[in-house]
Amino acid sequence: SATAGGGFDPFASLGGLTSDLDASLASLATSLTVKQSAAAKPGPAAASGNSTAQPAAPAAAPAAAPAPARIRTPVLTRSPTYNIAHLQACATGQAMSYRASLNLPKFAIPVRRPARSPSTPSGLRRLWAEAYAWQLRDGRPRQVFSLHDGPPYANGKPHVGHALNKVLKDSVSRYQLLRGRQVRFRLGWDCHGLPIELKAKPTQSAAGSDSAEPAADCSPANQIRQRARAFADQCIAEQRLAFQHWGVLSASAEHYETKSPGYVARQLLAFDRLHSLGLVYRSFLPVHWSDSSATALAEAELVYRDDHRSDSAFVLMPLIRLSADASAPEALRDSGGEQQPRHHLLVWTTTPWTLPANAAVAVGPGMRYSLRRLPDGRTVVVAASWPGFGGGGGGGGGGGGVELGEPLAEFPADALIGATYRHPFSNAECPVLPSDHVTEDKGTGLVHVAPAHGREDFQLGIKFKLPLVSMVTEAGRFGGPGLSESLEELNGRHCLTEGSGAVLDLLRRRSLLAHTEALVHSYPYDWRTGRPVMLRASSQWFLDTAGLRDRALTALDTVRILPDREAGAMRAFVAARPYWCISRQRVHGVPIPVLYDESTGDPVYDSQLTRRFAEHVAETGQRRLLLRHRRLKKSGDIFDIWMDSGLSWAVAGEAGDLDADGQASLCVEGQDQFRGWFSSSLLL
C-alpha cells in the first residue's frame, strides 16, 4: 500500500485484506441463511396430505437447537467462533465487523499519516529556516562549529547522492547544535565547467539569463554562456528546494555560487596574488588533452582504467655511429656505417602514434646492455637483463616465433651515450641520451623520447635542447605545421585509433617493425566523456605546485582525515603532483585576465588592470572586458573549475562562516575529492 509520502503502509494493506474477508463472510452468511430457510419449509408430501382430519398430537418438547457453524479463521481473533446470526448482523452493520475483532497493535501515535495540507511543506521549510536563524542570533556565548559545504555541480536534478551527502552533514550539524554549539553551515554550488556547458548546448530555448553579458551580444559563445547560466539557476532552484524539503538545517537562503559576481571577483584577485608571488606561469608543456572535450585536463579530472588495450611495438632504430669517447666493444663498433647500418636500437613503446615526433632514445645510466641477433641476421641493442619478446610489458619470453640469438657482446650504458641513430621516418640523426626514468623492469631498456608527448620526455628535451615538435591537432588527429611531407598519409587520422595502425604500417613497409604485442594496461580517461586522453604539448597556464608542496604537506599534518586509513592517499597525491594546469579551452567559466601581443603571442599581464576588472565584475556583474587596442588581444581561456571551487574557503571566510581561527571544523565529501576539491582547497 502506498502512503501519501510514497512509502509502504503495512497496516493499510492488512486493512484491505480484512475488508475482503468481511465481504466474503457476509456472502457466506447470506448463503447459509438461504439454506437454513429452505430446510425449514415443509416437504411436498406433508403439504398435500389426506383430506381426512387427524387428531392433533400432543405438544412435544422443543428439539435441541443445532450447533452453531464453526468457521476457522486464518488469524488470531478475540472470538474464534461465529454463529449465523452474528454473521448476518455483520452483513447488515448491526454487529462488530470481523476486521474490528483482530488483535491489531494499538498506538497512541496514529499509524497512518494524515493527509498533508498544501501549506505543510512550506511550513516545515520555514520552521527549519527559522530554527537556523534563531541559533545564530542567540546571544549566549557559544563555541562555533563550522561545516564547510563542498559545492555540488548545478547540472541536474537532486538524486540519492545529494541526499546521502546532505543527510550526513545535517546529522552532524544537529548533533553539534544539541551540544550547545553555534552551527554555521552555508550551502554552495559549482556553476561552471564542461558538464554544465554540454547540457546547455542542446537547450535552444533556455529561459532567462544573468546580467554577465549584454543581450546585444549574440555570438555563439555568449549564447552558450547565457543558456548555461540559466540552466545552472534552474538546477540550483530544484536542488535547493529538495534540500529544504529534506529539512537540512542550513543557511540555504544565503548560499554561495561560483558564478556570482562577488565570487568571480574574489577569484580574479586570487589569480593576481598568485601571479605576484611567481606561482603561476604560462608554458608550452605536455598536458593531458581530451579530444572528446577539446580541452586540457588536470590530473584530478582523469580516471585510470585497467582494461585499456594498446598495440605495443618493438621498433628498430638504425645505429649510425658511436661517440668517439665511448669505450665500446669491437663487435658494437663494427656497425656497418651510415649507408648500411648493421646494428639497431630495439625500442619498445605502447604509443606508436608518438613515433613520428621522436627526438631521442634514452638509456639507463648504470644499466648493462648486450648485442643480440635477430633471425634475419640484423643485430639489436637491448638491456642485458631483457628476457625477449612476448609476455606483455615488453618482455617475458615466447613472442610468436621471433627468437633472439645468444649475446654477441655485453657493455655498459656509457658505450651508447652520445651515439646517434637515424630517425625511423626521416634521414635526421638523433642522439642517445642518459635518463633516470629508464628502468629494467619494463621494455627493452631503451626508451623512445618524444618531448611533445611525455613529461619525462619534455624534461629531458629541456635539458638537452631537443626539438619540441607537435604534429597532433586539438581534435586528436595528425596534422599541423609539424607534420612533414614524408608523413602526409597520416594527415587527418585520429592518433589513438586508425592513426596508430597507420604508423605501424609505415614501419612495416620500411622493415623497421620487429614485433607487435597486444597489451592490456592502465590508461587515463576523461572522467566526463569516458574517452581515452593523450599527452599533447600546448600553451597553458600552470600553478607551480612545487612551490606550495612543502607548506601544503605541513598544513595537512594539522588535519584529521577519517577514516584514518585514507590519510595517506591524499598526502601521496599532493606530494607527487608535478604541476597544475589551471587553464581550459572552454567558453563557460571565469575568464583568465591576461592579454596577448598579437604579433608575438606573448602574454602581457597588468596587475592594476586585473584589480580594476575585478571591481567592475563585483559592481556590475558583467564579465566583459571591452578592449580596443591594435596590438593586444584578450585571452580566450577560462580557469579550471577546481580553481573555482577550491577558493570557496575564501568566500566562506569573508561571510563569517569559519571559526575564530579562520578554519572549518569539518568537511564531508567523497573519497574521490582527495584528487579534486580537497587538494585544490589545500593548495590554494
Helix-strand layout with pairing:
Layout: H1 10-40, H2 44-48, H3 84-92, H4 120-137, E1 144-148, H5 160-178, E2 182-186, E3 188-189, H6 194-200, H7 220-245, E4 256-257, H8 261-276, E5 280-290, E6 295-297, E7 302-321, H9 330-333, E8 343-349, E9 360-363, E10 368-373, E11 379-383, E12 409-412, E13 420-422, E14 429-434, E15 446-449, H10 455-464, H11 495-509, E16 513-526, E17 534-543, H12 546-556, H13 567-576, E18 580-581, E19 583-584, E20 595-597, E21 603-604, H14 607-620, E22 632-634, E23 638-639, H15 641-646, H16 648-654, H17 677-683
Parallel strand pairs: 1-2, 3-4, 8-11, 9-14
Antiparallel strand pairs: 5-6, 5-17, 7-8, 7-13, 7-16, 9-15, 10-11, 10-12, 13-14, 17-18, 19-23, 20-21, 20-22
Helix pairs in contact: 1-3, 6-7, 8-14
Rg computed from alpha carbons, rounded to a whole number of angstroms:
40 Å
User: Helicity range of the residues?
Assistant: 25-40%
Structure class = alpha+beta
DSSP strand count: 23
Which CATH architecture of one domain is right? Alpha-Beta Complex
Low-confidence stretches: 1-18, 43-62, 69-82, 203-216, 396-401
* Gross morphology: elongated
Helix count, DSSP H or I runs of 4 or more residues? 17
What profile does the largest beta sheet have?
10 strands, mixed
The CATH superfamily of one domain is: Valyl/Leucyl/Isoleucyl-tRNA synthetase, editing domain
CATH class of one domain: Alpha Beta
Mean pLDDT: 81
Q: Write the CATH fold name of one domain.
A: Isoleucyl-tRNA Synthetase, domain 2
Alpha-carbon distance between the termini? 53 Å
Hey, roughly how much beta strand do the residues contain?
15-25%
Organism: Macrostomum lignano
Pfam family, one: tRNA-synt_1
GO molecular function: aminoacyl-tRNA deacylase activity; ATP binding; isoleucine-tRNA ligase activity
Keywords: Aminoacyl-tRNA synthetase, ATP-binding, Ligase, Nucleotide-binding, Protein biosynthesis
